[in-house]
Fold each of these.
Amino acid sequence: MKRVLLLFLIFHLHLFAQDTDDSVDFTGVMQVMMTLLTPASNTIWEVDYFATEPYDDQTWQGISVASDQIASALPSLARDNARWMNYLNELQNANNKIRDSVEFKDMVLFLQGYDEIYYPCEDCHTEFLSY
């Protein structure tokens, strides 16, 4: 369900520049979202949330690659808008938990980041997308 919502919102990113309170240059945002953030977040959300056994090395490697993709995308998304930057900071904080979880192979820390990474995405889309 999260993926369907996320894809719906991303396909409407071209509406970002319309009807916002602040003048924000969203040039390149859709490309970064479609090529880096969406695949990375989908990789994270596809991890078995209810696993009772520790994740295997392949799962941790997938989480690591996805987290690195998110981290590499964030600098290119910086804009001169405080609310926008707040969402990016929240996304970065959640991703930092995910990155740390890989280092320590800590499922609990991963699940905290997993839960927290959704909200800045959803809230930013809600605020900056015009329907």
Note: The chain has one domain: 2-128.
Amino acid sequence: MQNIAEETVRAVIGRYADMVLRIAYQNTHDLCESEDIVQEVFLALFSRPLIKEEAHLKAWLIRVTLNKSRNFLRSARRRVLPLDERTARPSPPAPFAEDGVLEQLFSLPAAERNALYLHYYEGYSAKEIAKMLHRTENAVFILLSRARKQLKAILEEEDEE
């Protein structure tokens, strides 16, 4: 870790740790792994020259979190079965804990779920999301539209039951 002031480290972690945890959790569905991903993301951040501009820092954190979450899903660790299936899963991080659409959100494909999250929870525009996800702006509009339609259909189906 470079010689970064402790106040800077605390400020950056305090400002972005919840966001990184939410993104990791919505992709992995596993709180313990999400917490590990948060640590990996911040270790990666502080082992390089610190990004000074706030918008670039936030975008970098989101991109790295998405990549590390994807790596986790591809890894062999994911395929290991727990020793005791009776072990309770920790509760999800806020705002997912009190959000009524958590399970429905998890049923969406990852690309659509991430676009929806970045747009509605983090407030990014389609152009900014396109840059982060390495897609065109039109592709992001399509992802958002598809995700809203699917989420609406799922919620309507639940209301009927």
Note: The chain has a mean pLDDT of 82.
Amino acid sequence: MDIQTVFFDMDGVVIDSEMLHLRALGLTLEMRGISYDKDILDDFVGRSDRSFFQYVYQHLDDRIDIEDFLKEKDIHFGNLISELQFVEGFPEFMRAVKEAKLQTALVTSSTSQTVRKVDAVLHFTQLFDLVITADDTVTHKPNPEPYLLALERTKADEERTIVIEDSTYGVIAGKAAGCFVCGLTTSFDASSLQSAGADMVVDHYRDLQLFLQ
């Protein structure tokens, strides 16, 4: 495969943050006195916060104001943000990508506000040639719109583009956009990522770095 471009999801791929996001979502409900089954949080790994609160509105409490809950979730996440770290192996892999002069994009279901908060801690957005957030698209993963927009703006060939994803919804989106998708097992196990359509699955960035070489 003649690789030209690498698209990265953010949570669980660049930053080790999935559990922090889920904690913030849960805290938002708990502070408002809304009871919920904690297992539902796992169903929203790799999906937008808005989709979670839409579920809450439809199934748990139709009195909530989704916009208010989104703001509260961002506050809770901001209080946890000092705990953020890069996914193990990401900095070294990104150095190899830069040395190979490959084009890069961050394609995340998080809002631009969340990305800015994370960037204030880890200073990582300058590593990417393009950043696509939830604010840039109408539909979100598993819809391919975020990756299709990234392909359009980078003028990349989907057949020469690798998408790195940790969630089943992200894998589905990347494949629907026509890209080669690598699943990283930071959030889902290998069989789940393969069932979603991942072309390859790795447990660590060093395995993907060998593939690039």
Note: The first strand starts at residue 5 and ends at 8.
Amino acid sequence: MIKPRSERRKHQRLPLSIPVFVRGVDQDGKEFLEFATALNISAGGILLATRRSLPRSSNLALEIPVAPLPPSSESPQSVRSLKAKLVRITHGERCHLVGLKFNKPLQDTGKGKINSA
């Protein structure tokens, strides 16, 4: 028996609107940097709205800008970087909805920190 789509997900999705920079290689083999918006995110992946149509199965690098933290904070990163693979794309007139699966799921380490790829 096939489970309904909503039950097949391993991770709960959170409806968050987050700016994301997407790096990859287009259909012509040229590198690109695209500004996109995350529409929802889970520990396993992310749904982006982007102006660029991407080849299916693209391997992408995502950069999520975060506010600079004081030097005494535990996380000195000013950008969170994640690796992901395109698994679904829906073409629209004004944008494309791109479903990405993270190469490594985000996980809570138990210390309030999130692992990233």
Note: Confidence is low (pLDDT under 50) at residues 109-113.
